[in-house]
C-alpha cells in the first residue's frame, strides 16, 4: 500500500503565538475599551482558545512525525551509520502499530489521527491482515477529510478486488474518478480501475485507458504499459 509522502511538519513558535495575541489587541483596542470588562473577558477567552488550538496542533504534528520516523526506520542486522534499526519486520510493525494507534486514540477526530489510521491500514495490509486493514481504511474514508478519505478509498478498492468484491471496488474507484482530490487524481483512480479490468474485462480496460494513454509523464507511461498487457482485439 502506498504511504502518504512525509513532509516537514511546521511547528508554531511561542513568539508567533504571542505576536498573534498582541496583534489581536492592537486591532481591537477601541472595541475592548468601549464594551468594558465583559468584552475583555470574551476577547481573552477567544485568544486563549486560538493559542491552545495552535499548541495542540503542534503537539499532534510532532507525535505524527515521531510515528512516521518509526515507520521509516530500516530493518537490518547492523546499522552502518549508527542510526536506529529494527532487527525484524515484525518488530518494526509492532512498534509502528503502537505509535499510530496511540496517536489515533489520543487525538481522535483530528487530521493527524486520520493519517495515523491510514498508516495503520497500510501496515496491516502489507502484513496480509486485510480484514483489520479494511476497518482502518473504512474509518478514514468515512470520517477523514476529502484528501485522506480519497487515499483510504483507493486502498479500500484494492482490498475489495483482492477479496473478490470486484463490483464494490469498481464503485469506489468510479466515485473517485468523479470526485478527484489533491491526493488522488482522476487519472490515478482510472489507472487503478483499468488494472483490475485488464484481466476481468479487457474491453472496459481499453475504454478507460484510451483517453489517457498518450498523456505526458508517468500517467501516460503507466497507461501505455498496461495497454500492452491487453489481448489483441
How is this structure best described in words?
The chain has ten helices and no strands. By secondary structure, it is an all-alpha fold. The chain folds into three domains: 12-60; 84-179, Serine Threonine Protein Phosphatase 5, Tetratricopeptide repeat; 185-233, no CATH class. The longest helix is centred in the first third of the chain and has 44 residues, at 29-72. The protein is globular and about 55 Å long.
CATH class group of the largest domain:
Mainly Alpha
Beta-strand proportion: under 5%
| Overall structural domain count | 3
User: Number of helical segments?
Assistant: 10
The backbone outline, from C-alpha atoms, is: globular
Poorly predicted regions: 2-29, 31-36
Q: Do you know the CATH architecture of the largest domain?
A: Alpha Horseshoe
| CATH third-level topology of the largest domain | Serine Threonine Protein Phosphatase 5, Tetratricopeptide repeat
Strand count, sense and barrel status of the largest sheet are: none
What is the oligomer described by this structure? Answer: single chain
Distance between the terminal alpha carbons, to the nearest Å?
Answer: 32 Å
Mean pLDDT score: 81
Helix content: over 70%
Structural class: mainly alpha
The Cα radius of gyration reads: 23 Å
Number of strands: 0
Series of H and E elements: HHHHHHHHHH
